[in-house]
Amino acid sequence: MQKAVRKLRAVADPGEWSPAESAELYGIRNWGAGYFDINEAGEVTVSVPAEGKLATVSLMEIIEGMKQRGLQMPVLLRLDNLLEAQIALLNDSFNKAIQTAGYQAEYRGVYPIKVNQQCAVIEEMARVGLRYGHGLEAGSKAELLIALAHLDPEKGYIICNGYKDEEFVDLALQALRLGFRCHIVLETPTELPIILEASRRLGVRPMLGVRVKLAAKVEGHWNESSGDRSLFGLTTAQCVELIDALREAGLLDCLQLLHYHLGSQIPNIRDIRAGVQEACRYYAALRQEGAALGYLDLGGGLGVDYDGSQTNSHHSKNYSLDEYCTDVIETIMSTLGPAGVPHPVIVTESGRATVAYSSILLFNILDVTSYEPADAPPAVAEDEHELVKNLREVLNGVTAKTAKECYNDANFYREEIRELFRRGQIRLRSLSLAENIYLHIVWAIIAVLQKVKRPPAGFEGLEESLADIYYGNFSVFQSLPDVWAIEQVFPVIPVHRHDEAPTRRAVLADITCDSDGKIDRFIESGGMKHTLPVHTWQEGKPYYFGVFLVGAYQETLGDLHNLMGDTNVASVRVHGDGSFEFVREMSGDSISDVLSYVEYQPQQLLERLRKTAELAVRRERISLAQRQEILESFAASLRGYTYYED
Ligand SMILES: *Cc1c(COP(=O)(O)O)cnc(C)c1O
C-alpha cells in the first residue's frame, strides 16, 4: 500500500488546494458572523469596525506580536473591537426595529456581569455602554460592587437579580441616592420584608422589579431555567400576594419592572416569541392590579450560532438578531396594543451574544500520535500462532466486495489474540505483529471504500479509530469547561497553512493527563464530525490553532485540573489603518500561584526541598554545586508558567 492513500475521506489531494476551499471546509463564513475569514495567504483574519472603517488583521500577525512580547502559548486573545461591535449591533438593531415598527418606547440593554466578569471586559462594556445607556446586570453583591464602580450614575442602568440579603439591598438603595437607575428584582417572596425594612430605615423608595415564573418551556441546554418548575421567579399566587403587600406598604407605585429569564442560548425563535407573549399577559395584568410597570425585561437567551448551521440545534439558533428584535417588538405590540397598555421600555440581559465573539483561545501543537501501520505488510513466520496467520490471510482478501466481512473478521481475530495475551498464552511480539496487521487491514479497507461511490453501512467509527491525536498546549478544563461539562461545540481551526491541503484527520488532546481532556466534536462542511481535518505535523515548525467564540462563560467556570492555571491574556485593539496595539497583557498563573490556590506555601515547599538537598549533600549523594542547581531549578519552576514552555 502506498503512503499517499493513507489519508481519510473528505480531505483533498495535496497540491490543489486554495484558502477558499479551507474556508468552505471549516465553515468559517457561517460561524464567523462576518468577523472571521481566511485570507489569500491562508491565514485566519479578523475584520472589525475601527474608527469608522472596516479593518482586517491576520491572527498570525497578532501571534507574532505576542512572541515579540514574550507571551507564551496558550494565550487568550481578547479583541476589544468585537465587544464594542456587538454592543453597537444589539442597540442599533433594537433601535432600527423600534423605528420601523413605530414602537412607542425605547430599548435599554444591560450586560449580565456573570457571563464574563473580567475587569478588561467590564471596563470596555462601561465605556461603550455610555453611548447607548447600556447598563450592567448584577446577580450578586460582588457584581453589584463592580457595576457601581464602573457606571456613570446619570447614564448608567443597573438591574439587581439573584438572592439578596440585607447588605445587597442596602447597596442597591444607596445606588439610588447616588443617582443611579437601579432596579431590585424580587426573585423570591422572602426578599420583600428585607427590602421594606431597608427602605424604611434608609428613607429611600426602592425601584422594584419582579421576576415571574413563566409556564413557557424552551428547547436547548438550559431549558431547566424555564417552565413552572424553574428555580427562580414568583408563581402567580406569589405575584398576587406581592401586589397586596406592596399596596399595604404604600409602595405599589415602586413596582416598575417585570422580568423573566428562560435560560441561555435559546435556539428556537418560536420559544422566544411564546415567552414574550406570556410575559406581556403578566405585564398587563399587574398593571391592572395597580403596579406602575414601565419596563419589560426579557432576560438573556439570545443565542450564538456556534456551528454556523442557522438551525435550532443546541449549538445554533434559527433566527438573526434583526429577527429577534422585530419579533420581540411585534409580539409586544400585538399583545399589549389591543389591551390599550402603553408600550414598555424593552430591557434585555444579553450576555452570551455580546461577549462570545470577542475571545479566541490560541494554542500550539506539541506532538502527534498517528495510527499508521509499519510500512510493508508484515511477513508471518511459519511457527506463528494460527490466529495471527488467519489475520494475515484477511489482509490478502480485502476488496470493495469483501470489505465488510474482512472488517468483521479482523475485529474478531484481533479480539481473540488480545484475549490470549491477557491469559498469558501469546507473546508480546505476536500481539504487536497482530496489531500491525490489523492496522494494515483497516487502512486497506479505507482505501477500497474511497473508490466506491456509496460506502456500505457498518463502518461508522472506522475513520475515527484511525485519526491522529494532535496534542495541544492547553487545558480543556481551564479554558473550555463547557466542552467537557455540556459537550458545547466551539469552532476550532488551524490559524494558518490554509493554502495547503489538510491531509490528516485528528482529535485534539490537551496536556492534562485526563482522558476527558480532549476536543472531539468539530464543525466540518456544515455538519458535525468527531475528527478535524488538519495539516501534516512538521517537527520543529510551529502549528497554531484557535478556538473561537469563547468569550462567554468559559473564563471563570474553568478549573485547576492538573493544576493548569489561567492562561496568558492579551487584549488587542485594532485601528482603522489595520495596525493594532496590545492594550493589556496579563501573565497567566505561575506554578507558585496555582500551588497557593490549593493551600501550599511556595516558600515552605522550597524550604522543604532545601532540607532534602542538604541531607543529600551530607550523605554525599550530590555535590554542593548540584544542590544549588536543584534548588535553582525548583525556584525557577515556581515562577514559571503552568503550561508547556518553549
Ligand atoms: C445568565 C443570565 C443571563 C444571561 O443570559 P445569556 O443567555 O448569556 O444572554 C441573563 N439574565 C439572567 C437572570 C441570567 O441568569
Would you spell out the secondary-structure blueprint of this structure?
Blueprint: H1 19-26, H2 28-31, E1 36-38, E2 44-50, E3 53-58, H3 59-68, E4 75-79, H4 80-101, E5 107-112, H5 119-132, E6 135-138, H6 141-150, E7 157-160, H7 166-178, E8 181-186, H8 191-202, E9 207-211, H9 236-248, E10 255-259, H10 269-288, E11 295-297, H11 321-336, E12 345-348, H12 352-355, E13 359-369, H13 386-396, H14 403-422, H15 428-451, H16 462-466, E14 468-472, H17 476-479, H18 481-485, E15 492-494, E16 504-509, E17 518-519, E18 522-524, E19 527-529, E20 532-534, E21 544-547, H19 554-557, E22 568-574, E23 580-586, H20 591-597, H21 602-618, H22 624-639
Parallel strand pairs: 4-22, 5-6, 5-12, 6-7, 7-8, 8-9, 9-10, 10-11, 11-12, 14-16
Antiparallel strand pairs: 1-2, 2-3, 4-13, 13-14, 13-21, 15-21, 16-17, 16-20, 18-19, 22-23
Helix pairs in contact: 4-5, 4-11, 6-7, 7-8, 10-11, 13-14, 13-15, 14-15, 21-22
The protein binds pyridoxal-5'-phosphate.
Pyridoxal-5'-phosphate binds at residues 112, 114-115, 161, 261, 264-265, 299-302, 349-352.
